[in-house]
Amino acid sequence: MYPRINIDLKKINENIQMIKEITESRNIEIFAVTKAVCADEKIVDLLVYNGIRYLADARLTNLENIKSKEIKKVLLRLPSQSEVERVVKSTDISLNSTISTISLLNDEAKKLNKKHEIILMIELGDLREGIKPEEVLTYAEKIFKFDNINLKGLGVNLTCYGAVIPTPDKLDILIDLKNSIKEKFSYDIDIISGGNSSSLHLLKKDIMPLGINNLRIGETYLLGTETAYGKSFMYMNTDSFSLDAEIIEYYDKESIPNGLIGMDAFGNKVEYEDKGIIRRGILAIGRQDVNPNDIVAFDRRLEILGASSDHLIINFEKAKDDYSIGDIVRFKLNYGSLLDLYTSKYVSKNYIE
Ligand SMILES: *Cc1c(COP(=O)(O)O)cnc(C)c1O
User: Fold this and answer.
1) Percent of the chain beyond pLDDT 90?
2) Which H/E stretch holds residue 144?
3) Which residues are part of the catalytic machinery?
């Protein structure tokens, strides 16, 4: 069935083993992040089989679908106040930044006679979630008053909204905060979580501050890339996933539309380049499945011209004799296309074991 994502479980397994080896040798434990693959059961199995102890996802639905009893579940996105009951029931740890939410989590945990663990997020410049570093002692004091909440860790998230690259000086702030909590409250915080796949470059350069003992890693074990500079990481597999889509029309046509030009299907004014008559192929996949800017054909002679909801249009001119209607074209994925394709119910999955 096409379109389909090809998922090479062997390559993903190799990546998991490498990332585990690299992080464990620096006394860093990882939360394996599953959101880009909607907590795919087969990939979850690989992670558990490799001894990963924490699985992390931004969506409760994904965490609820994970069956393994051996692992701890971490909610990465700050809990919605309307969902605290689900959070306490279906996760062990959540990332937090607001006392009123933590208080609601405490109430739920009390009802269920549980302890819920939290990682307090610190804002260090990327301007997504987190409290200001100077507020940490005030927050810690309030959190210690909740009987059913355990302040398990401090964390930072970088290179998401603000594209701020993790540097040793930023991560040192987390370690200083841990020390000041210890000094003031004689309380030892267990996890110091130094970010996501964009922090791995610090390991490669051997400048990861001692004291960072956790990273939350998704993209690197899936796509083999670190995300501070977008480079491939330590010779990991960068082609564990690919997309196949089928050609449903294959004709020579003009390269510029003919008629009074208005807006395209998405309300954009588009500029078209005149290349004369070209071989145009239409593939059965569209924006409902993936953003055309996030895929690249393995055959570099093919050029993506655009896409509507359900149709992807490609310039085959440089390779026109090598394809015909009904053929399959293969594409390389990035983080955005992996996320989109996994989320589309119209895309099937082909596991390679
Ligand atoms: C998505 C996410 C991660 C993982 O990011 P990758 O770039 O895939 O490693 C880590 N932490 C938080 C809070 C996230 O939302």
Assistant:
1) 90
2) helix 136-144
3) 35
